[in-house]
Amino acid sequence: MNIQKFMRLIVGCLVIVAMVKIFFNPSKDTSVKTHQIIQGANFWAKQRIPQLNLVHNEEDPVKKEHADNPEVQPEEKETIQSNQEELQPVVPDDTPMDPLKIVHLDLKGAAPKVKYLEQIFPLLSTLGASGILLEYEDMFPYEGELSILKSSFAYSPEDIEEMKSLAKRHKLELIPLVQVFGHLEFVLKHEKYFKLREVQTFPNSLNPQAQGSMDLVQDMLTQVMKKHPEAKWFHIGADEVRGLGESKDSKRWLETNNGDMGKLFLNHVTAVGRFMTKLKEGIKLILWDDMFRKLNSDTIKESGLQDLASPMIWKYIPNMDVKEIGNYISKYEQAGFKGVWFASAFKGASGIDQKWTPINHHLKNHLQWQKVITSMPQYKSVRFQGIALTGWQRYEHHTVLCELLPVAIPSLAVCLQTLKYGSFDTEAQKEVQRLLECQIELSKNECKGASFPGSDVYEMVKKINDNLESSVQKIMQSYHVKGSFSPYHRKRSFANPRNLAFFKDELKKLMDEWDSFLLTFRQNMEAIFYPDTLEEWLEENVNEHIERLHGMVVDAERIIKLNGQPKVDPLKKR
User: Fold this and answer.
1) How far apart are CA 382 and CA 329, in angstroms?
2) Domain 100-450, what fold?
3) Out of 162, 240, 281, 302, which one is annotated catalytic?
4) Which segments in the chain show pLDDT lower than 70?
């Protein structure tokens, strides 16, 4: 009996061991499905490329590719390592396969306060944005020798930390943008840097051959990078390098290099790219593509830039030529670029002094870009990495303000949802209207009854845009103003009080209504923007009309008191 019990115990143990082995044995099928490219409206589906399953001691093929790259010299590797130790943490190579949808904040004018960003970042995330492109310009808190570059209202280091925290909280990739070649007006306007201008009389572009130019660029990049050590992407600008080749230094270089303007440009941006990869191991660089468009793919490939950065192809017009964009993509693919970015516009690209964002204009631009996005599977060796929805605040540092950010929120919402759904169909429109609590009317370029952060400024700018100038013009064209209160009458203090009485009260009422309205407008603007923005916007869009109203009221009251006396004769001796 005891033997039988013992045998049963042994059999039971064997069964248990067998079951444990079966349960914990990993599947022999270790194949991993490759990431599928989803076309059309589903392009933005949340797919991820799986991690590589490397056997122990097997080398990562990406690292092997860089190790085999003859462009990286031994001494350069040593420098990269030392800089890696200085700037921590190292950026992990975990870039998502999903193309990013980045909202561009152009801070060269009307930079919003961080308190407003605190309200707007969650909305951007909900609308479908996955990142923010911060074009700092003079809003970065530069220090030391570069402190001259910062605006009086530049963000503080604490502001930047808060922005980074907000972005992380709302799952928005934060990408700094620092210009390194063209559009350096905010730097080269200072007399201290006149000697670094490519054209001595213009502050647009840096002289790449001048002593001190690269030191300046490296110092700017280092300061910004130290405030963004966690950044995975960094945009180095490099568009519209006006006047390149016109300085004496550049002309001498061109004489000894067969007049190769392409190489002159590529040498500088490639040197900047190499510096950035040494400064921060693993950083992924972006630059605008327009300076490449006339270069052939072999010229670009010879520079080595394709191993350092990705081009961002930009086009902002409604009737964008999709075939032309395809030609650029093909060229950059042939040049060896592994990835490509696109740049559309949700504001600031429809007129240099535009006050009111034309939603339909920007929607059409995004519909064209959607066609390009859908075509990307045909390009086998270059990957679509993302699209930046640009929101230009000025065409350049010295030009007037374009539309304010709150005014363009409906346009931005329409454009983001168009990219999400593949078109601005009924579903996309319903989603925009639900999130902004408004009625979108594309034919009128407006969002009626809106309720979003800054919607009070949106509504008030609309009233100013639609009614201020026209209301003043209307009263100036009235019968009695035209007949009895002309500039001549006012200058000579000559009018019949009876005639002025017909419009005096209406004139005063109009002035009081606008004064009261603008007092509230100022308060709402001050909650979002710094004082310099309010001053500039009022000067450009309001003051001329309000001052005319005030002048008319003062003159009418003064002349009425004269009781119709003879006109002032400038020729009569007093």
Assistant:
1) 8
2) TIM Barrel (3.20.20)
3) 240
4) 1-97, 570, 572-574
Domain ranges (residues) in the chain: 100-450, 461-562
Residues 6+ away with beta carbon under 8 Å from 186: 108, 137, 138, 149, 397
Picking from 514, 506, 504, the residue whose alpha carbon sits closest to that of residue 554 is 504
Residues facing 107 on adjacent strands:
none
Q: Are the beta carbons of 69 and 444 closer than 8 angstroms?
A: no
- How far, in Å, CA of 385 to CA of 309, rounded? 12
Helices (H) and strands (E) in the chain, counts: 21, 10
State pTM to two decimals: 0.83
Establish whether 240 is a catalytic residue. yes
Distance CA 491, CA 555 (A): 9
Q: Facing residues of 101 across strands? A: 387
Nearest in space to 329 (alpha carbons), one of 307, 315, 304, 312: 312
Handedness of CA 123, 127, 130, 134 (dihedral sign): negative
Q: Which helix (H) or strand (E) holds 364?
A: helix 359-374
Q: Decide: 60 and 52 in contact? Cβ < 8 Å.
A: yes
Cβ–Cβ under 8 Å, residues 492 and 567: yes
pLDDT in tens, 426-442: 999 999 999 999 999 99
**pLDDT tens-digit series, residues 431-472:** 999 999 999 999 999 999 989 999 999 999 999 999 999 999
Q: What is the dihedral of CA 165, 170, 172, 176, to 10 degrees?
A: -30
Strand partners, 341: 312, 386
